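For concreteness, we quote verbatim a single protein encoded this way:
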Amino acid sequence: MSRKKIQSVELMRATEKLLLEQGYGGFNFSTLSKILNVGRTTLYEYYATKDDLIVAYMNQLMKDYKSDLKVIIYEKDAENQLVQLIELMIKYSHIHNIIKIIPLLQSESKAVKKLEKDFVKDHLYIIEAITTIINNGKKETVIRKEIPTDVLVSLLFNTINKPTSIKMDNASWAKWVWEILYLGVSSHD
């Protein structure tokens, strides 16, 4: 049987899907190989353990998130910045579930230890970037100055997770979150 090459993007998507559906305990190369339609040993050509693959996935996820966030930071219009930030946070809302996997990683490898340290640094970077965006919104009078920035950061982090009972696409959810935050809930008639 000839071995099928796996594209990195395809492997990372399948890894994410399986982690989100089955969690760390249900994640294994046997199930992943079925999703990818490859032999299980093919996966071992890329990663020695499931933890190595999960670490690579988590590193790529954070790299992508920070890259997308940097684009928003350089947006000139404060209102657009805030809307794009909400859209980005909703797009990557699954990170909260992925982060919960870190303590479950079995390997004591350098890669796992580095991931743990990097995730702390990345989280601080993200909070700093969001704080910068919010402060820019205050400076440009898109956000009221008297609202504490840390309250808004916390509110954003806790608002982005769309309940599964709400059947709405992410763009619509982001639009409603922005409208409620920006206009409030009172009637403007």
